[in-house]
Amino acid sequence: MSGTNPFLDPGRQTELYGHASRLAGRSNALMRAKTSGRPVPDTIVGLVRNHHERPDGLGLVLDLGCGRGTSSLAFAQALGPRRVVGLDAAPALIEHARQRAQRLPGLPVSFMQGDFHRLPVPAGSSDIVVAAFCLYHSPRPQAVVAEIDRALAPGGLAVLVTKGLDSYREMDQLVAAAGLDRRAEQHESLYISVHSGNLADVVAVSLDVLVVEHEEHSFTFDGHDHLAEYLATNPKYNLAPGLYGNAGALAATLHEVLPDRPLTTKSLVTFVVAQARGGQQ
Ligand SMILES: C[S@@+](CC[C@H](N)C(=O)[O-])C[C@H]1O[C@@H](n2cnc3c(N)ncnc32)[C@H](O)[C@@H]1O
Fold it and tell me: Do the domain assignments include residue 1?
């Protein structure tokens, strides 16, 4: 096993985000388990409305690391900007996002493949730049924030979102107790690069931080079958061959070794709103 954190290992990005169905399975299992915490796209929309000086006259909204485009579509519907552009490194996810957008004709949203370290937009072009749950894939997150600074229009806002370092630690405990990976609780957090404890500092290198909000999100998985849908795609663990990526086999193993009962786990979600240094560029 290499020492590289799986979320920072370029070789594992393809595996993690190479198929839209894989990300959808993981996200859907997590969202079905959610018992508290506001929907993140709604919270971002609320922060934009509260902190942008002209929230009803927005031009370009950039959604970095947009994945399957869920947030980009929500921003286009809720904020009514001139255009939303979702950018992601994974071609399969961009293709999937485009197909979703086609089912909503007339919505001013488009998707492009690209790297958030080199934003394919002119300087000063974007009223809003969102980076939700993606900066922790960068070994150089300050470089991404510097690019966000370059992309922001005068009066523009950046909204950045990440998770706490010890998010889902109850899953680590269960994986260790089940003997699936005895060292599950010792692995480095997947969010080591950008997490609730350092997001504001990372952003403050280039931008003025206006708001920092922390919100605890809780999740209760019904039992082994539900949990395995999420765990099977978690790159944090060293699972036995045949279990990684195979929710059915993982659930069967869990049923053999532990009583089937609900698992409650938590994640701290942190939002930072920032603007270009000095308020106006
Ligand atoms: C966990 S998903 C987050 C999706 C979405 N923002 C959300 O809130 O649900 C992380 C996304 O970041 C993307 N990503 C990782 N590294 C990237 C990079 N260098 N440039 C652009 N996107 C990247 C991945 O392809 C993946 O779709």
Answer: no
Q: Is residue 174 part of a domain?
A: no
Sign (positive or negative) of CA dihedral 17, 44, 205, 192: negative
C-alpha R_g of the chain: 19
pLDDT of residue 1: 41
Question: Which residue CA neighbors atom 15 of ligand 1 most closely?
Answer: 137
In a domain, 57, yes or no: yes
Give me the residues of the chain with pLDDT under 50, please: 1-2, 280-281
CA distance 168 to 219: 9
CATH of the domain at 35: 3.40.50.150
56-80: per-residue pLDDT in tens?
Answer: 999 999 999 999 999 999 999 999 9
| CA nearest neighbour of 211 among 254, 268, 140, 161 | 161
pLDDT for 120 equals: 97
- The token pair at 76 is 């286009």
pLDDT of residue 281: 44
Residues at CB less than 6 angstroms from ligand 1: 13, 17, 65-67, 70-71, 87-90, 93, 115-117, 132-134, 137
Ligand 1, atom 27: closest residue by C-alpha? 67
The total number of structural domains that make up the chain: 1
Q: Which domain holds residue 129?
A: 6-166+190-220+267-276
Q: If you take atom 8 of ligand 1, which residue's CA is the nearest one? A: 132
Tokens of 16: 């993690």
Contact call for residues 117 and 144 (beta carbons, < 8 A): yes
Query: Which atom of ligand 1 is found nearest the CA of 115?
Result: 20
- Please give the full DSSP string across 184-237, using - where no structure is assigned: TTTSPPTTSSS-TTTHHHHHHTTEEEEEEEEEEEEEEE-SHHHHHHHHTT-TTS
Assess if residue 141 is contained within a domain: yes
Give CA–CA dist 266/264, Å, rounded. Answer: 7
